[in-house]
Design brief:
Layout (H helix, E strand, L loop, with lengths): L1 H10 L1 E9 L2 E7 L7 E4 L2 E4 L8 E4 H7 L5 E5 L1 H9 L9 E3 L2 E7 L3
Parallel strand pairs: 2-6
Antiparallel strand pairs: 1-2, 1-5, 3-4, 6-8, 7-8
């Protein structure tokens, strides 16, 4: 049922952390299911155990309200990447995968 899918998306919480690098705001979004794990595929590693990914659970609608203030968004996991796709902040071509875990690193403005 499409309505149930929409409701589930609106109720989804993701782990978010805000950083400031070189005076620019950075948002990191990570799915709860993969938080604190190392995702590896041969020489490629996404180390989600690092403090870079430590944040708090935030509902999608709250994240959506803050998106315009970020220069860079780094998202890891199916829910996090789909959130950016649904909000037209990325596209399929920009998404990469390590061991079938999608991630994307996007620059929104200068």
């Amino acid at each position: 049922n499409v309505m149930l899918v929409v409701q589930n998306i609106l109720l989804t919480k993701m782990i978010c952390k805000e950083h400031i690098g070189q005076g620019k705001q950075i948002l990191v979004i990570c799915d709860e299911e993969i938080h604190k794990k190392k995702i590896q595929d041969n020489d490629l590693v996404l180390d989600l155990t690092s403090s870079f990914y430590d944040g708090e659970f935030i509902k999608e609608e709250i994240i959506k309200l803050k998106l315009s203030k970020f220069y860079i968004i780094h998202a890891v996991g199916v829910k996090s990447v789909n959130f950016l796709l649904l909000n037209k902040l990325t596209n399929e071509k920009e998404i990469k995968k390590i061991n079938n875990v999608p991630y994307v690193h996007i620059v929104l403005s200068s």
